[in-house]
Amino acid sequence: MKEVLMNPEAEAPAVHYYMIRGGKDKTNITVWECGKVGDEYIKTYGHYHVGDISETYSIIQGEGILLLQKRKIDADGQTIDDEIGSFQAKKVKAGDKIFIEPSLGHLIVNTGNIWLVTSDDSPVYPEDVDPVGLPGHADYLAVQKMGGFAYFVVENGGVPTLLKNPKYKVVPEAEIE
Ligand SMILES: [Fe+2]
User: Fold this and answer.
1) CA of 155 relative to ligand 1 center, distance in Å
2) Helix (H) or strand (E) holding 11
3) How many Å lie between the centroid of ligand 1 and the Cα of residue 121?
4) Cα 79 to ligand 1 centroid, rounded to whole Å
5) Letter string b/e over residues 29-65, b meaning 16 or more CB atoms within 10 A of that residue's CB
6) From ligand 1's centre to the CA of 49, what distance in Å?
7) 101-153: per-residue pLDDT in tens?
8) According to the model, what pLDDT value does residue 124 have?
9) Alpha-carbon distance 168 to 19, whole Å?
């Protein structure tokens, strides 16, 4: 996680989140630790999907903030990792069902006092080299090289607040919805 944290040197839990991958049929379960790393709330790594794969998350318990970001496209139709065309930060809570379009990079931040737990239906391909750690449908490297998403979610006076990641060249203004 260090490479995507706002403050990689801050004290952090050994594991930020746990996943049990069952794939599209059995679903995947994710459990977030609670708390912060420095001022930044515990989050998942964040990734883009490779190809035309959408995903639906169900929030089973807890509350958090879902970050969605869409990269700009260059003249050749290639995504530009450091230029973001749209960014959304949405509060989510137990009972919510969230549909994520294929082109949207996504992560969820745990802003609550209990473990955040979700289930999702993204595919797992057993033939991948590392189907659990690095499933083939997900691109983590585009996030890794930018040091995280375009905004970090940090605590400011007890309230979750967005803070821009200075490594991105183009980032639209955003607020938590
Ligand atoms: Fe995903």
Assistant:
1) 25
2) none
3) 9
4) 17
5) ebbbbbebbeebbbbbbbbbbeeeeebebebbebbbb
6) 6
7) 999 999 999 999 999 999 999 988 877 777 767 777 889 999 999 999 999 99
8) 85
9) 28
Token readout for 47 is 């990734």
Give the whole-angstrom CA distance, residue 136 versus residue 62: 28
- Looking up tokens 């069952």 gives 22
Q: What is the DSSP string of 100-149?
A: E-TT-EEEEEE-SSS-EEEEE-----TTSSSTTTS-TTEE-HHHHTTTS-
What separation in Å is there between the alpha carbon of 111 and the centre of ligand 1? 20
Give 126 Cα–ligand 1 centroid separation in angstroms.
17
For residue 136, what are the β-bridge partners?
Answer: none
The DSSP call for residue 3 is G
Q: What pTM value is reported for the model?
A: 0.95
d(CA 34, CA 4): 17
Share of the chain above pLDDT 90, in %: 90
Q: Where are the beta strands (DSSP E) in 7-62?
A: 17-20, 28-32, 36-37, 40-41, 48-49, 55-61
**C-alpha closest to that of 117 among 153, 154, 64, 155:** 64
What is the residue type of 125? Y
